[in-house]
Amino acid sequence: MKIINLALAATAFLALTTACTSSHDTADNTVVEQTEQKDTPPIDEKARALYDKCSNLNDSDACFDLGYAYDHGEGVKQDYSMAATYFEKACSLGEGAGCFNTGIYYEYGRGVRQDYGVSATYYEKACSLDDSSGCYNLGVLYYRGEGVRQDYQLANHYYQKACDMNNRSGCYNLGVTYDKGEGVKQDHHLANKYYQKACDMNISSACFNLGLSSENGEGVKKDFKQANKYYQKACELNDGAGCLNLGVSYGDGRGVKKDYQQANQYYQKACNLNNGIGCKNLGNYYRAGKGVKQDYHKANQYFKKACDLDDGAGCSDLGYSYSFGQGAKQDYQQALYYYQKSCDLKEGMGCDNVGVLYNNGQGVRQNINTAKWYYGKACDFGYQKGCDNYRKLNERGY
């Protein structure tokens, strides 16, 4: 079955952070206008003490903590504009976490005007002040080309700096770029090295990708047992794709003894984690009675959830149930609805089944030309039966 590769993670987050090495002088050095500071003092005693230390003693830690207080509404009324003011002041006093959080505020427009270029400047400064998250987020901006010219090599430079400081997202993204060969020569062995470091720091997608590498023999010897160990860890970290692939291994006997009940347990967890293929596979097991008591009604519940999660095969399976009255009253119009959704999701089987309904006039007025069009679309999506049906109509002169 098809395995899903996870996309590159690139999520900024607000946190108190530390660490990094020297600055790489490539940031947009835009002059940043300081947010106007308000005269209203903080309310509670702790916040007032921070205010005094920040304003009178230029204490960078106190300025940062005051920014955090305004961000969370702790001891003061929540005010993102004031938070940005104090994070900026902390940054100007050499506090890396203050620079990082100021970058977050400009990236997302919290209390200040959104500006990716200014955000990049603050991430650059944070990175130069040993803040690993600043290095990582600057890498993300270079990867996306937001506020700076897109540059995969510079993105990797900052991911590397972040990873060297044990920033797990930096290590994961570095693994992805080596896997894809973006800004670097493609190197699965190096990709696995960075995935391993990220996996050791509990990035579930890194563990999953290590499983794929072991399964496919990319950068390592092909080894299903090793792949399953990584899928197991990914699943334990609530990665739906890891649970799905572990279910496939138990269902097919890949590196483990074939066990349909175990397969169902992992498909169930994958489905609970909103993995559409996991829901669809669980539905197929209930339809066939594999490892569970056969139950068409329950099968359809899982097909419905898979379809709602935009799994095209799940939509097609649910359409089949309505076509043949399995666990539901036979209803060709409902079948057509789910087959059409499946086809819209580029599932060849769904397109072929829409063609069958038009060919037979089931739930729709019979139209052989429309049927042929859907068969052709199914063929375009790689579904052989669609190709065969298209050829048969061609031979009949349609």
Distance between the termini: 34 Å
Net shape: elongated
Quaternary status: single chain
The helical percent reads 55-70%
Order of helices and strands: HHHHHHHHHHHHHHHHHHHH
Radius of gyration: 27 Å
The largest sheet, given as strand count, sense and whether it forms a barrel, is: none
The class by helix and strand makeup works out as mainly alpha
Query: Uncertain spans, ≥5 residues at pLDDT below 50?
Result: 1-39
Proportion of beta-strand residues:
under 5%
The beta-strand count equals 0
Average pLDDT: 90
Number of helices: 20
Quickly list its features.
398 residues, mainly alpha, 20 helices, 65% helix, elongated, disordered N terminus
Tell me about this structure.
With 398 residues, the chain is mainly alpha-helical. It has 20 helices and no strands. The longest helix has 13 residues, at 45-57. The chain is elongated, with a radius of gyration of 27 Å. The two termini are 34 Å apart. Residues 1-39 have low confidence and may be disordered.
In short:
By secondary structure, the chain is an all-alpha fold. Helices cover 65% and strands 0% of the residues.
Produce the secondary structure layout.
Blueprint: H1 45-57, H2 60-72, H3 80-92, H4 96-108, H5 116-128, H6 132-144, H7 152-164, H8 168-180, H9 188-200, H10 204-216, H11 224-236, H12 240-252, H13 260-272, H14 276-288, H15 296-308, H16 312-324, H17 332-344, H18 348-360, H19 368-380, H20 384-395
Helix pairs in contact: 1-2, 2-3, 3-4, 4-5, 5-6, 6-7, 7-8, 8-9, 9-10, 10-11, 11-12, 12-13, 13-14, 14-15, 15-16, 16-17, 17-18, 18-19, 19-20
